[in-house]
Amino acid sequence: MKTLLELTQVGIEFKTPKGSFKALENVNLKIGTGEFVSLIGHSGCGKSTVLNIVAGLLKATTGGVVLEGREVNEPGPERAVVFQNHSLLPWLTAYENVELAVRQIFRGKKTRAEMKDWIEHNLTLVHMDHAMHKRPGEISGGMKQRVGIARALAMEPKVLLLDEPFGALDALTRAHMQDSLMEIQSDLKNTVIMITHDVDEAVLLSDRIVMMTNGPAATIGEILTVDLPRPRDRLALADDSAYNHLRHEVLRFLYEKQRKVDDFTPRSSAAKPPAQIVEPKAESVHAGEADAAPQSVVEQPQEKVA
Amino acid sequence: MSASPTVPHKMPRLELSTLLTKTLRAIVLPFFGAAIFLLLWEVTSSKIQTSLGQFPGPGQVVKQVHGLYLEFRDDQERAAAFYVRQDQRIADARAADPNYAPEYRTYAGKPTFVKQIFTSLKTVFTGFILASLIAIPLGIAIGLSANLYAAINPLIQLFKPISPLAWLPLVTIVVSAVYTNSDGIPKSYITSAITVMLCCLWPTLLNTAVGVTSVSTDLINVSRVLCLNWTQHVRSIVLPSSVPMIFAGLRLSLGIAWMVLIAAEMLAQNPGLGKFVWDEFQNGSSESLGRIMVAIFTIGVIGYLLDLLMLTLQRSVAWDKQAIVR
User: Fold this and answer.
1) Which of B219, B240, B321 shows the shortest C-beta gap to A87?
2) What is the ipTM score, two decimals?
3) Rounded to whole angstroms, how far apart are CA atoms B207 and B202?
4) For residue B221, what is the nearest residue in chain A, using CA coordinates?
5) Cβ(A274)–Cβ(A197) below 8 Å
6) From CA A207, how far away is CA A194, in angstroms rounded?
7) For A77, which of B225, B240, B321 is closest by C-beta distance?
8) How far is B140 from chain A (nearest CA, A)?
9) Which helix (H) or strand (E) holds A19?
């Protein structure tokens, strides 16, 4: 598989009144076309910062991001973002929200009628065709997030960036949204980077799970390849040993290796070493896997998983 | 008695009690408030003796409303009669000489109370619209640019607290010097409108600036991802998002404009409600105080209606229907 997106030695420092704060350091990641990658880690570890750097909303202090051989310097519709709190324009209907993006991107490339079809097509894809002409204030949180996804999909992005897209939703709606996303993903085969703090969500949706160490100077701790066959069914997977093993791996990383130190006590230096030890291993893991993941997932023999 | 039969009865009773509370709040309590106010007014006014006779009570004011209405009706009749006479005269002249070029004159009677109300409204809206035309674009500009805001903010804070009475002499002199065409729009009207503008500029300006600066970061990020250019960014993100704040500012501005107008008209002698109050004060007849009281209530009612108008506008443009606007 071709590498679509590459993060090389990405690091970022923020200027604060107390001096500079190094949020990220040495983030290296290659993502192939059509791959679904999740970024997981404790809150405040810089997951969203990584995503914002890829989106171009933040500028890396060191290193950089290359998309299809071109360096990312600024935001652009080829890296569409679905934000955590939907970010729909509250004065526009669902249709008009998608229209804003479509008009901007396909100006001169599509006729008015084609644009209308394209907007409706994308809203139908996320099952929002029945409430197209409602405003964000009139629809539920899950529906708003669907419109946000439709808007991003309508941009035909090369990489779809999801920033904790279902984080603000209740558990049932979230499960429903995850199923929808898997369904869309099986059709469109987009390249996706998703931020999450939900272990089940990461295992269920991803081809690879990138686990981040705790900040400051957070980096990639481990990368886990999820070689479960698709389509994945959450009920069947609940008893699947391979699924539970992967889930366990992520949990062990988050709660043993990267145990979150209580914010009210000073950060003890003892909590850090595991991250440093893990780091070189993570490098070697991702180097080989980036080119192989998604296709091999589909063709993965069942018995290997079980 | 078991508990179950009482349950179905509970619902309508609850509705009835809320209905009663609502009626009480909407009609009965305001009525009581007004009644107590009128009573206090009557009692107090009967104890105040002035050089122009007794201070007018509610009855006297009602009588003056009627008197002012009669004056208005008489004036309308006189105007109608004037136009009938004029038409007759022109028709006669035409009959005598087919080449007669008629000269139409408008009726120029003494301004009545009703006419003065309309002059006041016209003046206040002129000032208010001028102020809005300056304040909204400038507010957007200083909201978008922190540098511009830093440059202009001290000036805003300096000019904001200035009373219309302080502006008026300056404005009067400047208008007299600059505007020499005396047959057109009256100077007093321009002076009053400009004074109103200078005083009601600030709430809209500041509110617009705050509205523009407080556009959510998420929406700005959306704009950046879509690569909207500056005009599109302002038109489709910044402006709609700050519309509620702009209208809140406009509503405050119109309130101030109306307050300032009365003072401005008094001093500039613009034939509106302010001048009416001043003329009655100078006139000093036994009816003057009653007529001034009528003007005061009129000013209050119109101010309230203007506010209601702006409130309706504000609600109709608010995209956040959950927000409580009052």
Assistant:
1) B219
2) 0.78
3) 8
4) A57
5) no
6) 11
7) B225
8) 19
9) strand A19-32
